[in-house]
Amino acid sequence: VRVTLPDNERNTTQTLEYFPVTLANGTTVPLSEVVQFRSRKGIEKLNHTNGALNVTVSADLDDRVGNANEIFADLNSGLFPDLKRRYGVEIGLEGKAQDQQETISEMKIGMMIGLALIFIVLSWVFASYVWPIAVMTAIPLGLTGSLIGHLVMGKDLSMFSLMGLFGLSGIVVNDSIVLITFFGQLRDRGMNVHDAIVEAICARFRAVVLTSLTTVAGLLPILFETSLQAQFLIPMAISIVFGLAYGTFLILFFVPAMITYLEGGKRRLRDLASRIRPLAQP
Q1: What is the pLDDT of residues 8-60, one digit of tens each?
Q2: What's the CA gap between 258 and 46, in Å, rounded?
Q3: What pLDDT is attached to residue 87?
Q4: How far apart, in whole angstroms, are the C-alpha atoms of residue 31 and residue 22?
Q5: Residue 204's pLDDT is what?
Q6: Three-class DSSP category at 154
Q7: CA gap 131, 34 in Å, rounded
Q8: Residue from 261, 270, 265, 132 nearest 197 by CA
Q9: Residue 250 in contact with residue 137, Cβ under 8 Å?
Q10: 68-77 vs 95-126: helix axis angle to the nearest 10?
Q11: Domain count, the chain
């Protein structure tokens, strides 16, 4: 609650000098009778959090010296513990750092829900619980490419980077779906696993690569944009461009390898079940 004087009484100390104050014995005297007035530079306002005095310290970051994560790590290991020990203060991060921490914690939940929904949809489409696993191996491949991209471009991970990772997860999955859908069609025709994998890669190589290249080409100009308005979009573009470029070519190797491994595991389980079934009969 802020209590202020009328506008016509704020620019003079005379109002304060004659301000009536009630003493312990019930008498009323002017404030100047019990205090001395001195002019000096003071604090404009006092902030409180849950009744405790709050002091805000802010600073601008020089990217040439270090990034925010490095500075916070140094403060947490050096200055902050010393301040807590000597003065008993409580220290918390506000502003961009706090927003980023809250966003990351919320996005963890969102990511798990998103992955679960992707798995459910793919399981329904493919009528299999095995093939969605092969499809979703593309997601960590794309995430790895995004991290490499931030390292190459010298950018820190931010909230917009994480948003780009969400979009990337859906894009790289599409490339895997193209491969595995055609692989399933070949298997339905009676082709063996090895031949079906090779044929699917050869037949869908151009579609997978061109789809990714057009997306990368569309976002590439943003990476080199220098205008202030585009700066917040650059981390998002880095996540998608590098993740898609890196993940697309690895998908052509890892997804077929995963399919071969999973199909081999299914075959071994069927063989094992066929051996156990006669033994279980009386």
Answers
A1: 777 777 777 888 888 888 889 888 888 888 877 777 777 777 777 777 777 77
A2: 61
A3: 81
A4: 9
A5: 86
A6: coil
A7: 84
A8: 261
A9: no
A10: 120
A11: 1
What is the identity of the amino acid at 66? G
Please indicate, yes or no, if residue 216 is contained in any of the structural domains: yes
Measured between alpha carbons, how far is 182 from 139 in angstroms, rounded to an integer?
20
* Cβ atoms of residues 280 and 273 within 8 Å: no
Q: Please check whether residue 135 is in contact with residue 177, taking contact to mean a CB–CB distance below 8 angstroms.
A: yes
In this structure, what CATH number is given to the domain that contains residue 225? 1.20.1640.10
How far are the Cα atoms of 16, 34, 41, 181, 279 from residue 37, in angstroms, in the given order?
Answer: 9, 10, 13, 84, 101
User: CA 43 to CA 226: how far, in whole Å?
Assistant: 40
DSSP H helix total and E strand total for the chain: 9, 4
Chain center to CA of 96? 13
Q: Identity (one letter) of the amino acid at 143?
A: L
Answer whether residue 64 is part of any domain.
no
Task: Give a yes or no: residue 11 inside a domain.
Answer: no
Whether 97 and 72 have beta carbons less than 8 Å apart is answered as yes
Only one residue has tokens 């009744």, namely 51
Structural contact between residues 150 and 160, judged by C-beta atoms closer than 8 angstroms? no
pTM of the model: 0.62
Which segments of the chain have a pLDDT < 50? none
pLDDT of residue 67: 67
User: Does residue 13 lie in a domain region?
Assistant: no
The torsion angles phi and psi of 182, rounded to 5 degrees, stand at -70, -35
Q: Which domain holds residue 186?
A: 95-280
Q: CA-to-CA distance for 147 and 5, rounded, in angstroms?
A: 56
Residues in contact with 220: Cβ distance below 8 Å, sequence separation at least 6, in sequence order: 237, 241
Q: At 32, which amino acid appears? A: S
What pLDDT is recorded for position 242? 92
